[in-house]
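User: structure tokens for this one?
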Amino acid sequence: MTPSTHRLLSSVLAVSVIVGFGVSLIGCASIGPVSPVAVSDVKSLSGRWEGTVYLPGSERDDITLTIRDDGSYDVLSKRGLGVSSGRGQIVISDGRLIIEGERGRGVGTVLRNRAGDVVMKVDMTLSDNRNLSAELWRTR
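Assistant:
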């Protein structure tokens, strides 16, 4: 391969990478940003939420979270052949959800995209110091 051919191939490769990167950024931007929703009253969260919990070790599980007007909640997890449940209390502090459960504690954030879709993101530390996260959507 001659030096001029090598330069031409390098230039084509560099331009391809730059264009590909630029297109991927435009694609991500079209999804639209999400913005946090300041929650002032736990009643605004009441109802049924469904989603996925991500457990340690890359395990995933489907969950249903039911929040009552007073902030108390029940959570139901459908693990493989069995069912697991829990309960706790959610309070609001500075627009964030503070979650105290039977098996751990954590924080939650409510987010909204441009289309108006709302998602609740939760990060918790269990009483055995394992961490989990969850994404939930309101189903009412």
